[in-house]
Amino acid sequence: MRTLGYLISFGLLALSLGGLGHWAWRTLDKNELAAYLSGRIEKARPSSAYLPYADRWLEFPLSGKGSNVHIISNASVHRSASFSEDVIWWYAFRYQLLDSKGELLHEGDYHHRTRVTRYRDPRHDRVVTRTFLLDPLVVPTDSRLMVVPIRDHQRRPARLRLRVSHTDAALRDVMFRVYEQESLAAHKLAYRWQRLSEPQKELLARGNIYGADLLRGAEKSNLLSQRWRPAGPAGIEHSGYRTRKLYVLQETLGEPVDEQAIPYGLYVDRNTNGVIPLPEGPATIHLQWLAVDKPGSAPAGEQILLRWYGRNLGQRSETRVALTAPEGQLEAAFAEGLLEVVSAQPIVLRAFAADNDTTQEITPDPLRLRAYYPDSSLPVTFLVDHVGQQATPVRIDVRAVLSPTAATAEETAGQTAHYEIVGRNGKVISSGTLQPDLTPSRYERLSSTERDVRLSEPAHHYFLFDHDVAAIRLHASGRLLMTAYSRPFDLVRELHLPEDVFGMKREERQPAWFVLRPANEQELLMNLRSEHVVLQDRPPTDDPQLLAGQYDWEEYQPDGPWRGRYLLIPREAGLPVRDEARVALYHELPANQDVAAVLRDFAGHRELRPTLIFERESEQPASVSLLVDGSPVYETSIIGRRGELRLPVVAAGQRRILIRSSVATRWFMNFLDTDGPAFLRRLALQIGSGGLEFHYLKRSPDQEVLTARFYQSGKQRMRLRVDIDHLPDSRLVPAGDWTFIQRTYDLRPEDNGRVSVLNTRAATVDDGQRFFLPLGSDLPPGSYRIRIRPLQDADGYLVLYRLVPGQQRVRAFLREHAYVD
Fold first, then answer.
1. CA torsion, points 285, 290, 296, 301, in degrees to nearest 10?
2. In the list 165, 195, 312, 751, which could disulfide-bond 572, CB 3.0-4.6 Å?
3. β-sheet bridge partners, residue 445
4. Residue 409: which H helix or E strand, with range?
5. What is the Cα–Cα distance from 150 to 796, expressed in whole angstroms?
């Protein structure tokens, strides 16, 4: 019987070869042919696929039932073609919907990417494909589905026409199968289920939790009420079309051979770093990683680098872990912030945070953004929706797709995006070019399987369109991805701090920009002119000059009358100390102990005049004396809990300092060069209901950033409104930056410690919440008025300053003393 089955299959094969003749199957080995046909046909479901002749339409009559028509297409390639996971072909076909009179209702082009997915059959240990033909020299590619809606037309479509418009050179042809929805009458549903075979029942019930035997009557009726009926083409076979018998295996095929499914987790490779936001509070972070490539592919000595970023510049660390096995794990304590993962080998990483008896997974979910490829024949058009008569800001991001084999400068040369600004009358108002950034991104990638293809950093281009602008149209030469954003001009930028700094999850978070969908998005999708970009949080970019202590600190005071207090603020650990800052930098000295210390001179000063700050619990008078190198230099009485003492001139250098006090007191002194915790004496501005107003002089055309820190005595969140007096004009030429001139900061009090308010009895404030006021390159140099006011009753202090990186010029005034022999 088995021999008879082989002969029948062999005869079918000979008939299916047709024009190929007798030589086609003779070139195959006998055992190979038997293995190809043995046991496959009886386990496969045959279906008829139809091939149109070149430049001719393939026409299907439609019954008009249902709301959609399914078009399933398969291309075919020769058996000798490469079927690896990196080989992807594409083809396109044109479709038309006609009514009963032959008039055109709708037409369009649809593009498909395809490949051949191969599976390892676990029972026979051989490689198979889900679809196959009787001709073993021809391999069908994976099936691709297109859904055509037919209820969206006023006149019912009566015919569907298909014609292949383009195929890759490696593809032999494209075959089609068309299915219509068919409804069964209610009286037929009762007995139709019993007439189904067991495999048909299982096939219908595959989407249900229970098996076919456990389905209720209503569930069976729902499964039978709508089914898909194959449609046949019009015309005469071999004259209007060709028919090919396509077999689809119905059994479980096993694991894919070429494409291994990447497990859930954060993907990292040599081109893409991973970033994990870490939760607040003390927690133990547990990391697990799995190599994506085959075991043993990692070179000896390969490592995973973990970079931790805290809130402040001094909170940075690095950890290296050897990648010696396909799987690994690490358990370490990291404070809140961001954890960047760097690995030259592809890995998938998962992260967990353990706090006491609770373990929570903190692996970030990938964020996907749809971007579009424009070209000269198919531009990307974004409509501009205005709020009343207001101008509308629009942001265009341009990303270049970089090939791993070509140099960046060479491959992106000539790749330019062109824009056309269209008015309400449909005419082009202005046009120009948008240049991409050529820097490869380490934090963005395509979601496709092209692992080595890289994206450039997004180049941001900002427009400001008045109400006469209706749309912006984008063209491109080269492989450039476009995305567009917009926002109402008068929308206030809202930030919650510190939640919005490191990407903490907050449902009500307001985005700065809102994504726009192209007006011709459907056409772009059908022409495969779209990609998904995977986004993630980015670690802060540290200025090396700031880390080296090479910067100038500029403090700003408000206009008009104001009040303020000095605060004794804990200094951030880990940053180098500038000599210029030692006048405001204080270290604690123990009372009634002779301590060796170094008084650091500054800019050639050999004599210093330090200041002592004291804190104590008692308000009673107490006597104080200061001895330097055993000699008394200062003696006085103090009263109150806090205060400052201005000391006489002391020579710089190595000294022994002794502070004698009759009451337990904490002492802080400046100009000391020593280790240990340090404190900064800062003048903080008291902010009232009227707020504060500053005049800021922007000196450069580049971006300048002001830093503010708000200290409050209460424990409630504080909302501050910041307004920059600047009214930009409409801009048809893009700028490289956008400044939010209206901002609201919702600040959470910090409970890390209390900060003393000097020259008060016992007032303290929280550790302060930092926020930034960037003035972008879109603001020209000049004077700007900045108003900061609370949106509720305020009880706190504000410090406003700017850090200017670089070696600054310092002026020193020296006084010459008389020479003494």
1. -30
2. 312
3. 534
4. helix 408-411
5. 65
State the burial class of residue 789 (Cβ atoms within 10 Å of its Cβ: 0-12, 13-18, 19+). Answer: middle
What pLDDT, on a 0 to 100 scale, did the predictor assign at position 295? 53
How confident is the model at residue 231, as a pLDDT?
A: 92
Q: Which helix (H) or strand (E) holds 112?
A: strand 104-114
Q: Which of the 8 DSSP states describes residue 551?
A: E
For residue 66 the two structure tokens come to 């249902």
| Eight-class DSSP state of 25 | H
- 346 alpha-carbon distance from chain centroid: 19
pTM for this prediction: 0.79
For residue 392, report the phi and psi dihedrals to the nearest 5 degrees: -125, 120
What single-letter amino acid sits at 397?
A: D
H-helix or E-strand spanning residue 4: helix 2-17
Cα–Cα distance for residue pair 156/62, rounded to 1 Å = 9
**Cα–Cα separations (whole angstroms), residue 653 to 588, 607, 625, 734, 819:** 18, 9, 21, 57, 20
pLDDT value, residue 821: 42
Nearest to 436 by CA among 400, 394, 488: 400
Rounded to whole angstroms, how far apart are CA atoms 271 and 455?
9
Of 559, 562, 587, the residue nearest 573 (C-alpha):
587
- Which whole-number Å values give the CA distances from 45 to 41, 126, 235, in the listed order? 8, 20, 25
Residue 680, classed as helix, strand or coil, is strand
**How many Å apart are CA 579 and CA 569, to the nearest integer?**
18
pLDDT for residue 192? 75
Query: Are 434 and 398 a contacting pair, CB within 8 Å?
Result: yes
Looking at residue 1, what is its pLDDT? 41
User: Any residues with CB less than 8 A from the CB of 114 and at least 6 apart, and which?
Assistant: 74, 75, 88, 89, 90, 91, 141, 142, 144
Structure tokens at 650: 């002391």
Q: Which long-range contacts (CB under 8 A, 24 or more apart) does 290-295 make?
A: 290/263, 290/265, 290/326, 290/327, 290/347, 290/348, 290/349, 291/323, 291/326, 291/327, 291/345, 291/346, 291/347, 292/260, 292/262, 292/267, 292/345, 292/346, 292/347, 292/348, 293/345, 293/346, 295/326
Distance CA 766, CA 95 (A): 68
- Please list the ranges in the chain whose pLDDT falls under 50: 1-32, 35-36, 406-409, 819-821
Whether the CA torsion 382, 387, 392, 396 is positive or negative: it is negative
Strand pairing report for 769-775 and 594-599: unpaired
Query: H helices within 121-256, ranges in order?
Result: 186-192, 198-204, 217-225
Measured between alpha carbons, how far is 214 from 443 in angstroms, rounded to an integer?
49
How far apart, in Å, do the first and last CA atoms of the chain sit?
125
CB 797 within 8 A of CB 565: yes
Residue 28's pLDDT is what?
44
| Residue found by looking up tokens 């939640």 in the block | 499
Can you tell me the distance from the alpha carbon of 744 to that of 343, in angstroms, rounded to the nearest whole number?
39
The whole-angstrom separation of Cα 775 and Cα 594 is 50
Percent of the chain at pLDDT above 70?
87
The b-or-e profile of 452-486 (16+ CB within 10 A means b, else e) is ebbbbbbbbbbbbbeeebbbbbbbbebbbbbbbbb
Nearest to 201 by CA among 192, 209, 193: 193
Q: What is the DSSP letter of 19?
A: G
